Amino acid sequence: MLPATVRDQMGLAYLFARAADTIADTDLIDREQRLRYLTQFRMQFSSSAGARSDLHAIQAALIPHQADSAERVLLQRLEDCLTLYDQFDPADQERIRWLMGVLPDGMAMDLSHFQGDSAQNLTAFQTLDELDQYTYYVAGCVGEFWTRMVCAHCPSMSDWDVTKMSAIGVRFGKGLQLTNIVKDLARDLHRGRCYVPEPLLREAGLTPVDLLNRESLPKFRPVLMRLIKMAIEHLDQGWMYTMALPRLEIRQRLACMWPILLAGETLKRVAAAPDLLDPSVNVKAPRSVVYRVMAMTTLTGGCGYVGTAYWGRLRKQIV
Length: 319
Hints:
This protein is mainly alpha-helical.
C-alpha cells in the first residue's frame, strides 16, 4: 500500500528487521552467540568494508538451523539485500542504518533479560519503564523511521514537523506492540517471558508464576485492562497521526488505518477472552473482520469520517 517512492526502502528495511529477528530467535544457538551475531549484523550497515566480512560467519552459523524455508532463503540472500542497500541514496542509507542501530536493542533486551526459554525459567520486567523502553526498541522506533522516510520522499508532506510527528509515530508503534504483548501473553509466559511488570502484578496480589494458572484470569483482569488502556492511548495518537496525513495520501492513510483498526478489533477480543491465559488459544480478529476493515476503508478512499467513526465505536467497546 505504500507510495512507490518509499516502497523499496521500507521493504528492504523490513527484510533486515526480519533477518535480525531470525538471528535472535534461533534457539538452537547459544544465547551469548546470538547476541554476538546481532552485534555483527548491526555492523553490516557500517561504512567500513571490513564489517561485511562477518556476514558469511553469520550465515554459516544460522542457515543450517532454519526450519522455516522463508527465513533460510532470507539469510541466504542477505548479500543481495546489502547490495541493494549500497545502491540507495546516502540519506536513505543513513535512515536504515539508524533503524538497524536501534531495533536490535529490543531483541538483545529479550535475550539478556529473559534468560530461560520455558515456564520453568519465567522472568518478568521489573518496572513500567522497562516495558516502555522495550516497546520503543521493537516498534516505537519504526514509527520514527517511517515518518522520517515518508517526509523525505513525499512532497505533499513537506510541511510536516518531522520531529513532532516522529514522536507521535513512536506512540503509534508502541500501541501496536502493546497489543501484541497482551494478545500473546500466554504463549510468551510459557517461553519464560513475562512482559507484564512485576509491580503491576503485585498490586493485584499476583506473581508472574500465577499467570501460568488459567484460573488467575479474574484476578489478573484489572492489570490486563490497564495494559489495554495504555495501548489504546498510544493508538489514539496513532489515529491522530493518520488523520494528519494529507487526504490525497490514500495509500499511506490505509497503511496506517488498517493496523490501528485491526489492533482495536484484537484488543476488544483480548479484553473479553475467557481463556486468555491458555497458550493453545490464539486470540485475534478473524479474517472476515480483516476483510471488512480493508473493504470499508478502501472503498471510502481512506475517508477520515468513516474511519474515525469506526475507531470511536471500537474504543467504546473496549474501555
